[in-house]
Amino acid sequence: MVIKQLSDCDYKAKLREFIEDLFSTWKQESSFSKENICCPQRPINEIMGKVDKVDGNMSEFIVAFDEETGSIFGMLHITFDSNKSAHISLVNVSPKYRRIKVGFSLLSYSMVLSVKKGIDYIMLETWNGNNRAISLFEKFGFVKTSANENTIELKTNLPSILKEAYPNTDTLDYSILNNDVLKSISVF
Ligand SMILES: CC(C)(COP(=O)(O)OP(=O)(O)OC[C@H]1O[C@@H](n2cnc3c(N)ncnc32)[C@H](O)[C@@H]1OP(=O)(O)O)[C@@H](O)C(=O)NCCC(=O)NCCS
């Protein structure tokens, strides 16, 4: 498995294929399922528009792919605000690739990329009862900031230990997020 940011690789066409497959074959098992009553059903064109808009500065897709075939099996979208916050959405892993740490790796990469960009905290939302995703987010120190009947909003601060641990190089090594660092995030 390789994790990359879309602006660093020539994978827009592959990501469009992944999104088309999601909408045509596993929509009900994705974040666009009927279970997700926290946001109105979003049309595929809106998601494709986000792929077109990726510039690596204000918005980015993080993708997981098979190096041999080049096919994508996981994605998330992250936007960066000028006030040092980031927002993650569209976290989706193909059903065939679940429970092998794809989601974990996408989140790890996003955390380290955010540190590199000087971000202080990350926000995201999911629907109430999406326990597998909530369990994933909690591993990265996300805690509930608000909730209503349908939606739960979570936030994590990027702790100084991660900022210090991140080496000042051009390569983005997301494996730096080892268990020791994660434990320190959890108590933040
Ligand atoms: C949620 C989702 C992204 C998890 O992706 P994944 O690659 O299967 O997750 P990982 O293998 O990286 O698992 C990491 C952690 O997530 C949690 N987790 C993932 N799947 C889980 C499940 N079925 N049940 C309980 N916990 C689960 C666990 O804490 C797990 O850690 P562990 O392996 O030490 O138990 C994936 O199930 C998915 O795409 N779901 C549909 C879309 C969705 O809900 N997106 C989030 C909307 S905001």
UniProtKB/TrEMBL annotation:
Mind listing the GO molecular function terms for this protein?
A: acyltransferase activity, transferring groups other than amino-acyl groups
Q: Which SUPFAM superfamilies match?
A: Acyl-CoA N-acyltransferases (Nat)
Q: Which InterPro entries match?
A: Acyl_CoA_acyltransferase, GNAT_dom, N-term/lysine_N-AcTrnsfr
Listed A to Z, the keywords are:
Acyltransferase, Transferase
Q: Which PANTHER family match?
A: N-ALPHA-ACETYLTRANSFERASE (PTHR42919), N-ALPHA-ACETYLTRANSFERASE 50 (PTHR42919:SF8)
The species is Ruminiclostridium cellulolyticum (strain ATCC 35319 / DSM 5812 / JCM 6584 / H10) (Clostridium cellulolyticum)
N-acetyltransferase domain: which residues?
13-173
Name the record gives this protein: GCN5-related N-acetyltransferase
